[in-house]
């Protein structure tokens, strides 16, 4: 297999440059949803190239929404900034430091995101239909509860929904705003919480046509209620990996569909998430654990011809991550991949950065099972052979792949 795969990579790959990105744009065609991955949450090149691809999709193909692996309330600060919904009293850097204060802060509070945020704000100044930037993750349980209560409290005509919300959210009061405490206590819980929050969300949706649409307040309250409903289920299930994983990715798909419905059914969306979310899970060993993900579900919902997934990878370099959950960030060395891995094969085929585009004609050339590196916010390279490689059929997991042979850590913002 190694020699065969190396030969296929040499034959089918293109050097990473403007010409290969032109080919990538051609391959994307008229797809409505383009999912752009990353092999870590702390690599500069993944962020900067993803940003450049997004700029081209906005400029050349009319994409008008970016949905990212971030929490709705925090990312709303970016959306409001780039759309001019807030007074310009701060820079993007100051905004990011203030908005992303919960670990892992570096995922979004970094120089690379600050640069793109400023670009998008300037771009929106020239557009009638401004490009939105939204968070679709569900870790912001209490922040989202606060946002729903704030909106309803500030609009007295929604008194019935406010009382409903107060009742629904009393489930979470005993846990001192620490959802992990909620997770460990659910053995003693009934389904009352999920019923109450689901009922609240239904009521809000029934009334949403009456909510003010200034600065997207109507979308904001619905999305925060959605986060609360799905976060409740997620934290109850977080001790069961596959089940909680699926709840999280199903939430992200539900959020994506809510945003598209809000803007228009034909809205063209860019999605920024880790490879493990946007690369079709059915083409990995995740399926053996009955795990699904965003990429798989969107392909099923919108069709393979209407979605396009781009994966990223690196052979070696440095990355921002932490040794353990909640610990301070650090620059960590990423060791060279073994020859038997996808990244090792890409390196062996030539050390230049490269782009692969998978089509019906060549996918099978890249569909032998092989380990594909994935680095999260916690990374211990000394153990990566035991848990950082996801067995995959790469040619079918993605529609294209960008390989950076040697990468460097991104640049977190300092307060």
From TrEMBL:
GO terms for biological process: response to antibiotic. It comes from the Bacteria. PANTHER family: ESTERASE, PUTATIVE (AFU_ORTHOLOGUE AFUA_1G05850)-RELATED (PTHR31299). This is Erythromycin esterase family protein. It comes from Lysinibacillus antri.
């Amino acid at each position: 297999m190694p020699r065969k795969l190396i030969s296929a990579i040499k034959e089918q790959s293109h050097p990473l440059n403007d010409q290969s990105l032109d080919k990538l744009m051609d391959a994307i065609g008229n797809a409505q949803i383009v999912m752009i991955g990353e092999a870590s949450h702390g690599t500069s090149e993944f962020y900067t190239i993803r940003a450049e691809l997004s700029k081209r999709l906005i400029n050349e193909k009319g994409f008008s929404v970016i949905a990212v692996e971030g929490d709705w309330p925090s990312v709303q600060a970016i959306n409001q900034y780039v759309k001019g919904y807030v007074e310009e009293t701060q820079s993007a850097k100051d905004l990011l430091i203030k908005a992303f204060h919960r670990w892992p802060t570096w995922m979004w509070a970094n120089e690379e995101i600050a640069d793109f945020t400023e670009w998008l704000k300037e771009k929106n100044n020239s557009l009638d239909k401004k490009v939105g930037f939204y968070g679709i993750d569900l870790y912001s349980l209490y922040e989202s509860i606060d946002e729903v209560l704030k909106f309803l409290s500030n609009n007295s005509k929604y008194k019935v929904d406010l009382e409903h919300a107060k009742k629904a959210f009393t489930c979470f009061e005993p846990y001192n705003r620490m959802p992990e405490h909620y997770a460990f206590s659910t053995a003693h819980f009934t389904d009352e919480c999920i019923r109450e929050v689901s009922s609240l969300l239904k009521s809000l949706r029934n009334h949403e046509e009456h909510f003010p649409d200034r600065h997207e307040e109507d979308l904001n309250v619905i999305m925060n209620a959605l986060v609360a409903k799905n976060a409740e289920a997620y934290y109850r299930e977080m001790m069961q990996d596959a089940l909680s994983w699926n709840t999280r990715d199903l939430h992200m798909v539900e959020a994506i569909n809510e945003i598209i419905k809000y803007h228009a059914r034909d809205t063209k969306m860019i999605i920024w998430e880790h490879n493990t979310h946007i690369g079709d899970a059915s083409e990995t060993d995740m399926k053996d654990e009955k795990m699904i993900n965003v990429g798989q579900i969107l392909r099923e919902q919108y069709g393979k011809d209407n979605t396009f997934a781009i994966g990223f990878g690196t052979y070696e370099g440095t990355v921002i991550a932490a040794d353990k959950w909640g610990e301070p960030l650090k620059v960590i060395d990423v060791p060279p991949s073994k020859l038997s891995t996808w990244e090792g094969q890409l390196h062996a085929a030539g050390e230049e950065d490269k782009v692969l585009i998978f089509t019906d004609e060549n996918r099978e050339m890249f569909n032998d099972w092989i380990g594909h590196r994935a680095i999260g916010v916690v990374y211990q390279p000394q153990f990566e052979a035991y848990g950082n490689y996801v067995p995959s059929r790469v040619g079918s997991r993605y529609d294209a792949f960008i390989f950076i042979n040697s990468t460097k850590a991104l640049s977190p913002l300092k307060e």
